[in-house]
Amino acid sequence: MILLRRLLGDVLRRQRQRQGRTLREVSSSARVSLGYLSEVERGQKEASSELLSAICDALDVRMSQVMREVSDELSLAELAESAAASEKVPAPMRPMLNSVSVTSVTGVPEERVTIKAPAEAVDVVAA
Fold this sequence. Notes:
Elements: H1 4-18, H2 23-30, H3 34-41, H4 49-59, H5 63-86, E1 100-103, E2 112-115
Antiparallel strand pairs: 1-2
Helix pairs in contact: 1-5, 2-4
Organism: Streptomyces milbemycinicus
Pfam families: HTH_31 (PF13560)
Protein name: Helix-turn-helix domain-containing protein
């Protein structure tokens, strides 16, 4: 099962770490407790839209950018889940999922980019 709160927490943590900032700095700037921000980053707590806005402001990053990254990771996680489910299919019939090509959203239809999903980015739970 893919948990949106986990993906969101991972994106927020990476944003913070790219800036070389501590949890304490961001929690103070966002006016949220250190422990709660830590739980959000670990995917243990759901961030409300107000809290997410405060965290994005503290990180000086647009919420749309954060949500775009979450959306990209969600797409990859869904593909990985699909691939894991297809492992029940005999090998000759199994689709290969090493990477996925997506059309850029920059408005240039010919521009293409290949994204490879890191295995650790996805939690797959067998049904």
